[in-house]
TrEMBL record:
Keywords: ANK repeat. It comes from Populus tomentosa (Chinese white poplar). Pfam families: Ank (PF00023), Ank_2 (PF12796). This is Ankyrin repeat family protein. It comes from the Eukaryota. The lineage of its organism: Eukaryota, Viridiplantae, Streptophyta, Embryophyta, Tracheophyta. InterPro entries: Ankyrin_rpt (IPR002110). ANK repeats lie at residues 74-97, 197-229.
Amino acid sequence: MTTYMDPVLFKAAEAGDIDPFENYPTCLDQLLTPDENTILHVYLGNESREPESTYFVDKILERCPPLLFQANKKGEIPLHLAARYGHSNVVKVLIDHAKARPTDPESGVTEAKKMLRMANEEQDTALHEAARSNQAQVVEILTKEDPQFSYSANVHGETPLYIAAAFTGLSIWSEGRREVVDGILGNCISVDYGGPNGRTALHAAIRVGDHETARKLLEKEKKLMKTTDENGWSPLHYAAYYFRSTRVLLENDASAAYIAETEKKRTALHIAAIQGNINAMKEIVSGCPACCELVDNRGWNALHYALASKDIEVFEKCMEIPELARLGMKKDEKGNTPLHLIAALAHENKLWNIVLSFSYKIRGLNKQKLSVDDISEGHFGEIQVINPL
């Protein structure tokens, strides 16, 4: 029968009271909760106070050194908890205790580095925990202690750098998040930029609108600009979709505007158009005007996509951009020009008739032999104007 930690001892551990453990007759590593938390886990997991003093941790480890590496049911050692809750003084003490141990003669890896690299059941190291909790000071300590180690992704595909870049906490914590990014980029010799579903830390930074972090990432690793996720979306696609500034990306490499996604072959310009993101469209066209020639897997150009937004103002703004205005007579695979789509839209919203009246009335036919006038008169054929996202 399993015997769990006595409530009196649990409360003592939680409060950091060393007295009950000074002359405890049983090995302290046998004092466990149902989740197999040791007295150090209990102490470090008490969020109601910050253990600035390291006295309790020092004394407990002197009495029972194995607790340094003893994990709970989730595979968490004390360092995981100290990193999560930002107990930087305790992190230093834990590392010092590990350094005092002899180095493994076979691997040549010090006990301190072995501890820093230990992962829990979700393959999170202490650095993952510190990054997730926005603990910049702890990140600085951990990365300086083991700069050669490349912290790989956990079971969710998240690396510490990705976690930091994707952080979406309160705005008052933003500076701390950037310090976490700086700590990893500045101290780690070999950095893993990866994230879930093929995304990178740059995708994450763009998604949350942190252009300063995006710039730092590109300074460190330029190839991130053209790294696509599992859907073929580049960071520029993300900027277009989430209404983020595309300037920092285009200044780095404007040719990213040529990248088309895997299946539907949409470029960032197509995404900006369907989203009605006029600023992004202007910046993309200005940085890479030739990308306007690219079409998706149906032959749709950016002007077709602007019309699919069904927003008259978006279309009118597009027509003010010469490179986009010239797409008005370009046909898709079914032979439909953007004007064919306007004619179809006019049956949903009569205001499109006004737009159509000021547009070029080309007499060209689509592959069903329907002209713009035919569609205006109600002969639709197979034409549909639907949101392609």
